[in-house]
């Protein structure tokens, strides 16, 4: 960091509109979502437009390096240490590659907003140690990204949330409230990624608080079973396996008995809890063989029911806008429509944001808030969420 760097950042903060690249690599480990956004204003005046978007697929070898340290209580510390810069360097390469294909020079971009890769998420509800705080770890260091791309980088968004009393997730409410609140009606933004989470947005004209909460597994268990069935299958494409099976009601009841579903909202979880080990424990206690298609049909219904239970508890049920890869699972969407009869369900496309890009845009908006907004924007606005701006600044020089 230099005085010139600080002046450059102050200049970016003073602009009417900023070009910000939002980066998200989620729990599905499918690739890096890269959203080049034009963001203007700040706080409730924020407007974000996606100029370009792509998901840059990870190579199988990169994915298996991440998987080796992902959501595990014991890992090879050297492998983890190496991945910290390796993830950042890989993300930087993917960004530079996308920019060159889009004909955009890095010098035109004001900020990179990088979520990094969550390696382990440990809210108290998971680790159970009252003497230890909520904790979460994202790797893919911001300094490396900044030096490699030459662009000021904002990263590591979740630590401030925890330091100020939150669980470090979901952060969606902060961006959703700024971008999608309607003056006169309530909305739900539902994201079905590896983990399903939702944001409740009250009418912005009132004084009610927004909140976002994880719900449970979206695709993570279905993806793991698909991979176990056929290692070349990244997920149950178009729900082909689930459609060939039937729901095992006894298993479904066991899965829904998980204590996490009894906790009040907002709450967070991850593949640390909802893992193959967790599923195998339930299958074992069931004491009966379940075929892969039946297991997939049951998991599909399980995700749909837990989502419908969470949204159905809101009275009246607001209009629903879906994002994340789960929106592409046709049986999951049919199950949801069946369980929430009469509810208006659309994708976030109806709000002008491509569903796969929504989380990457969220981090662009959080970076925008850090440089040009104010923590006061969020005071008393987000239930269970401290009034904070989030992210750490890395300078390329
Ligand atoms: N055609 C399809 N049929 C079924 N499922 C699909 C299809 N396309 C995508 N998916 C699901 O979407 C997932 C990817 O979703 P997404 O990219 O939103 O996850 P993520 O961002 O990694 O997760 P999170 O939000 O939990 O971090 C895939 O792993 C798969 O389960
Ligand atoms: C710790 C972590 O990475 N959590 C992710 C994950 O993926 C979905 C869900 O679990 C959500 O809580 C969160 O991401 C989104 C972007 C959020 O913070 O809103």
From TrEMBL:
Gene3D superfamilies found in the cross-reference section: 3.30.420.40
rRNA processing among keywords: no
GO molecular function: kinase activity
Pfam families: AnmK
EC category name: transferase
EC number: 2.7.1.170
Keywords recorded for this protein, A-Z: ATP-binding, Carbohydrate metabolism, Kinase, Nucleotide-binding, Transferase
InterPro entries: Anhydro_N_Ac-Mur_kinase, ATPase_NBD
Binding site for ATP: 26-33
Domain of life: Bacteria
Annotated catalysed reactions: 1,6-anhydro-N-acetyl-beta-muramate + ATP + H2O = N-acetyl-D-muramate 6-phosphate + ADP + H(+)
Metabolic or biological pathway: Amino-sugar metabolism; 1,6-anhydro-N-acetylmuramate degradation; Cell wall biogenesis; peptidoglycan recycling
Function: Catalyzes the specific phosphorylation of 1,6-anhydro-N-acetylmuramic acid (anhMurNAc) with the simultaneous cleavage of the 1,6-anhydro ring, generating MurNAc-6-P. Is required for the utilization of anhMurNAc either imported from the medium or derived from its own cell wall murein, and thus plays a role in cell wall recycling.
Family of this protein: Belongs to the anhydro-N-acetylmuramic acid kinase family.
Name of this protein: Anhydro-N-acetylmuramic acid kinase
Organism encoding this protein: Parvularcula lutaonensis
Encoding gene (name): anmK
């Amino acid at each position: 960091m230099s005085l010139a760097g600080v002046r450059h950042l102050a200049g970016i903060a003073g602009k009417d509109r900023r070009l910000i690249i939002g980066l998200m690599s989620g729990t599905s480990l499918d690739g890096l979502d890269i959203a080049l956004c034009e963001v203007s204003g700040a706080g409730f005046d924020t407007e974000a437009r996606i100029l370009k978007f792509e998901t840059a697929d990870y190579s199988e070898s990169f994915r298996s390096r991440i998987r080796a340290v992902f959501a595990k209580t014991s890992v090879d510390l050297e492998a983890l240490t190496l991945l910290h810069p390796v993830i950042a360097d890989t993300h930087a390469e993917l960004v530079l590659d996308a920019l060159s294909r889009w004909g955009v020079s890095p010098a035109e971009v004001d900020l990179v907003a990088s979520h990094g890769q969550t390696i382990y998420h440990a809210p108290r509800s998971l680790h159970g140690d009252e003497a230890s705080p909520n904790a979460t770890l994202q790797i893919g260091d911001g300094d490396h990204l900044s030096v490699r791309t030459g662009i000021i980088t904002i990263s590591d968004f979740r630590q401030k949330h925890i330091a100020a009393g939150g669980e470090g997730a979901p952060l969606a409410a902060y961006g959703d409230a700024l971008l999608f609140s309607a003056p006169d009606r309530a909305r739900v933004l539902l994201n079905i990624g590896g983990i399903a989470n939702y944001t409740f947005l009250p009418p912005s004209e009132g004084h009610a608080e927004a909140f976002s909460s994880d719900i449970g597994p979206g695709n993570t268990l279905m993806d793991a079973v698909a991979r176990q069935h056929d290692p070349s299958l990244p997920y149950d494409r178009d729900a082909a396996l689930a459609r060939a099976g039937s729901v095992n009601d006894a298993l479904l009841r066991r899965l829904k008995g998980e204590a996490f579903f009894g906790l009040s909202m907002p709450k967070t979880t991850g593949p640390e809890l909802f893992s193959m080990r967790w599923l195998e424990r339930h299958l074992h206690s069931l004491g009966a063989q379940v075929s892969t298609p039946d297991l997939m049909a049951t998991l599909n219904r399980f995700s749909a029911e837990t989502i419908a239970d969470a949204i159905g508890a809101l009275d009246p049920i607001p209009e629903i806008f879906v994002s994340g890869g789960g929106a592409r699972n046709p049986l999951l969407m049919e199950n949801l429509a069946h369980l929430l009869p009469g509810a208006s369900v659309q994708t976030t496309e109806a709000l002008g944001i491509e569903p796969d890009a929504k989380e990457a845009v969220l981090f662009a908006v959080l970076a925008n808030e850090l440089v040009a907004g104010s923590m006061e924007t969020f005071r008393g606005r987000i239930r269970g969420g401290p009034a904070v701006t989030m992210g750490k600044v890395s300078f390329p020089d």
